[in-house]
Amino acid sequence: MSTITAKRARRPVPAQQQPARPPRVFTYARVSTKRQAKEDKASFERQERYARAYADKQGLVLDEDTRFEDRGVSGFHGDNVKEGGALKRFLDAFDAGDVIPNDVLIVESFDRLSRQEPIDANEHFERLVRGGVVIVMSGKDGGDGREFSRAALRRDDTLLIVAKLEQSRAYRESERKQQLSREGISGKCRRWLEGKRGFRVTGSRNDPDWVTWNEQENRFDFVPHMEQGVRRAIELYRAGNGTPEVARVLAHEGLALSEKWPVTYLQKTIRNPSLVGTRELTVAGEEFVLRDYYPAIIGADEFDELQALVDRRGLSRGRSESVAVVTGLGIARCAVCGSPLVGQQLKRRLANGKPIRRIRCSHVATKAARCSSKMGSCLSEVLEKIVMDFCSTQANLDAMFNVTHNDGRMAMLAERRTELARLERKIGEYEKRMDDEDDPLTQTERKKLRQFEADRDAAVDEITQLEREMKLHVKRRVSTAKQWRSLVKGVIDLDPTARQEARKLVANTFERIDVWFKGDSQQDAHMMAVRLTGRNGVERQVLLDRRNGDIIAIREYDDVEYTVTTKTGKATAEAA
Ligand SMILES: [Zn+2]
After folding, report:
1. 173 C-alpha vs ligand 1 centroid, how far in Å?
2. What does the pLDDT read at residue 5?
């Protein structure tokens, strides 16, 4: 293979000795990738032609037997000067004296020799030049021809600077490229597929909410309450609930996954491959499937089963048919008998395919027949519409949120706390005497102590309850008329997400909704009345036309006269 090695065996001449042969011309070429073979071939041929022409011109012999070519060898990592590299073979030959002073090495450019850090790149370069080798740069288009040799450097010492600058440029180029590929998302994806771990492919925006990046451990961890919520959601969906129902149960259990669009969130989540820990992404048209990227919530089999279930059943439909907006919250009641109102969905549908939905007094619905209401039901849309319309006017809504009534909870809390302190003091006194031999508790006192303890426990429970209620009161989010208005259409169109959202607003705004399904006299037979009581205790009575759900009047509880407010009329128009 190498005639130089063969020569060396025959004739081991030290490098600095008198040359035993005329100088020769060698070529060294390197490409870092094995791709673009065609282009590389052309470049190698160009260099060959250059070398031949150079040798002819200088009257030297081109060494055509020994080829120093590195293909697919990185100059950045210095692989060409490591064992197996062609440049390493050339350096070895030089060390062995097979390459002698005034021998010429033709290279395309500095970056072919090395892309290592300049201090390392320069080492080999200087060693060859100092040893008398003439390095000639052929240039990419064969027009460079710069010569680096002891003699040339002696003539022009800026050449040394040129060399250093070239080495530096070569290194920076590679460094930047490497950084780009390392930082590039696709580069990271590839590294992941190669089995490397301990990094994330993209920023947090694209990761599911139930995981969080652990900076210390360089891995994803679960966000406990979110993980719990997702697990519960899957469980509920599998059990036959539609996403609206799942969202409702989660909210009830304090595991809500999304404040704003709980149903949409669930629908996306159930389809999300992140559930099994897989990250799917497309980078510049290239698709990546990164397995085990996140901690898995369910196994692959379970996920497949879940997808099959979704395909069969759809996401929205479960056993429940449409999200109730005003019923099922313990808020809406029959004004005549005080029973909760219940929603009903008839099997029969309207011509437009919408189900017929009614809201009725539960006593009427269950045929308990204790309710004396002349009419025990109305179309659900009617009640939903007036609640939505009412809240779509800011003035009405403000009344529901203004805290005008002191509900006395604060005073009660203070009183209970005083009482608790008194009981604990007493219990303390008695307990101190429990082990006192001189002054033991009498039978009566022991009995008293037990009573104090029971009272204390009751007081603690009451205080806890009051505090919880007040916290709820304070934490209650104030909604805006705009929010309500944005949901009106969705509520009427039975959009589960909008209805779920509206339901939350209803629960958040009202303490009670009392419904008179029918006016008392013949004259107002088409009228219906609804009393809306805010969570702050403020009441408003709404008179409406039960045939179309239009608001006729809104009056304050204490008002004697019906007041037809123009504001309300406007709100109705806006909402419609
Ligand atoms: Zn009733």
Report:
1. 82
2. 43
